């Protein structure tokens, strides 16, 4: 984050919230921020997925506008964009939740401190929003872990004991056992989430748009199931990322590679779910060039391979093997000493 970003803020929102988000974008721009807002950036003929990807890549922070509309049919696409901006505890503060109405906050987002953008609160909250966009690492002013559920709070340092050597050995053993078990659990969750078979009831919590076609519903349901299965197990992934810092303290900074690999796998799944939905809903009749159509289909197949695997080289399976192999190599020597 040392290099300047072309955009200060990417506004992620439901198209149905334009009446609220448009004045917000204007206000941020008047306050001197460079804002990525689709109405200002997208031009006729632009590839919408490509422009959105470019905007996400080149924005310093993402403001997610949460509302009943956003938590509806647009949710899978909106949430996918947030994962490149936040680690599970959002320590860098590059992800800013903005609440537009009183709709219940979904899943893992409930753990994050948000800014109220209800009509009665906007004037008072505007200063917070500006600070969050300009200086993400200093916002919010409250202690870093304030408001986190207990199971997400980083462990406090243990008090001194009489035998430091015995304590360190025992502590490493317990930590290695938990981390290894959590990685095995994460692998099972990801493998299960990627299963293409699902029950109709798994889609019940997704609110379909009134104008969804049968094809759009099938596409969105397919992607939703993968993301929902992962979100239902978000506590496991959050716990792994909390353990990451304790693991670094005990095993060295170089021991984080398996944690980074696992985080990368989750990011790929969420981004591919978003891209697969967007690309799959494109009408192929719009392609007049056979080569462009073929390239479009190849992109779809690439994201399908990430979501559900392929008969050949499976990037997610390969990544899981790398993460599990790495964490086993670090943990096994300490577990084998307990005879």
Spatial strand order of the main sheet: 2-1-3-4-5
Low-confidence stretches: 141-168
| Structural class designation | alpha/beta
The helix/strand order is EHEHHEHEEHHHHHHH
Terminal CA distance reads 46 Å
This entry's quaternary arrangement is single chain
**Helix proportion:** 40-55%
- The share of residues in extended strands comes to 5-15%
Task: Determine the number of helices (DSSP H or I, runs of at least 4 residues).
Answer: 11
Largest sheet: 5 strands, parallel
Structural domain count: 2
Overall 3D geometry?
globular
Average of the residue pLDDT scores = 82
DSSP, total strands? 5
Short description:
With 339 residues, the protein is an alpha/beta fold.
What does this molecule look like?
The relative contact order is 0.10. The protein has a five-stranded parallel beta sheet. The chain contains eleven helices and five strands, in the order E-H-E-H-H-E-H-E-E-H-H-H-H-H-H-H. Residues 141-168 have low confidence and may be disordered. Helix 4 (75-82) runs antiparallel to helix 9 and helix 9 (257-280) runs antiparallel to helix 11. The N and C termini lie far apart (46 Å). It has helices spanning 18-30, 38-41, 48-57, 75-82, 122-134, 164-193, 214-231, 234-251, 257-280, 290-308, 315-336; strands at 7-12, 35-36, 59-66, 95-99, 115-116. It has 339 residues and is of the alpha/beta class. 53% of the residues lie in helices and 7% in strands. It folds into two domains: 7-138, Rossmann fold, CATH 3.40.50.10140; 164-336.
